[in-house]
Amino acid sequence: MDSLTQFALGATVSALCLGKTLGARKAAVLGGLLGTLPDLDVFIPFDNPVDSFVLHRGWTHSLIVHALVTPILGELFVQSIRTLKNHRFLVWWTVFLCLSTHALIDAMTVYGTRLLWPIYPDPVGMGSIFIIDPLYTLPLIAASILALAHRSWSPRLGNWLSTALLVSSAYMGIGVVLQTNAEARAKTIFANAGIETDRVFAIASPFNTLLWKVIGLQDDRYHNLYISLFDDDLDAIIYTHLRHPELVACLGGNGALKKLRWFSKGYYRAEQDGDTIVISDLRMGLTPNYAFRFAIAERAGKTVRDTTPTVASDQPRASEGDLEWLVDRILGRPAIRMAETIDPQILRQTSRSAC
User: Fold this and answer.
1) DSSP three-state, residue 290
2) Residue among 337, 270, 324, 259 at smallest CA distance from 297
3) pLDDT given for residue 342 in this prediction
4) Other CB atoms closer than 10 Å to residue 220's CB: what's the count?
5) What is the pLDDT of residues 34-46, one digit of tens each?
6) How far is residue 191 from each of residues 197, 216, 243, 347, measured CA to CA in Å?
7) Per residue in 207-255, pLDDT tens?
């Protein structure tokens, strides 16, 4: 999640746990700083952009690492803050909660988090909430502002903090339910259209959990569906695009390709941009405006050679008309995303007779 959300979550958690002992304001500041601490891994130097992409949210987000560093940080606070000297267990518990909740809500986004590194090295990425979601964040911001505005503790403040955490957590849970529903609906839509997918993955669309981007994956192509909570699924539009596996068929030893396949869990596509072979993570961004695109090889005639991975040429994060399309689709109004009809691919629309 974004840094503001992480600060607000840490501040709310810490104020609720340590507010009586340390004071609401000081506890909120302490928790906010702890809540952003795992993201300091952005300052770790990596060899290339692909490593930076796949290794972010790594060991600094591991619950195992959090458990190991909790006594160190906790004892630092106990020894340096007089009012905490007789509350060692509470301080340690607060430190662990501030760190671990950061990692846990990151794991709910599609980017993923290596929660159990080094025992389980793969990232966990649910995709049930977008990296920025105002409905999740606003209750926490309100709670943290209240805590920062109160030097001393009061039961009423505690009630507000508890309510904010309950509301935000409930919203996160509802997102998981809606994601499961979107995937089930997508499987039916694909089946009615005669499409046999290998895997289906629903991902929250920008800033909300009412509209879901669902990817239906096949070996040589993928299908995008955009499903709103208010949709009539009989009017669903399927956008089909090629993955171009032939472009990377001879790159089995390419290290960057292996890492991107692993990190994307297979949800990637290859494309040729001039003489450059580019890999895009299908889960993040909208076709063709993917947030993470990497040039990993060059092609000259029939020869393909590995290159040092670089970030592919910049693309706009949105296409013309996307904002209007997004609003229409969130509200369940039928709309065609023109950016996905420009490519010479297949645009399918299910018919009412399909069912």
Assistant:
1) strand
2) 270
3) 63
4) 9
5) 999 999 998 999 9
6) 9, 11, 21, 16
7) 999 999 999 999 999 999 999 999 999 889 999 999 999 999 888 789 9
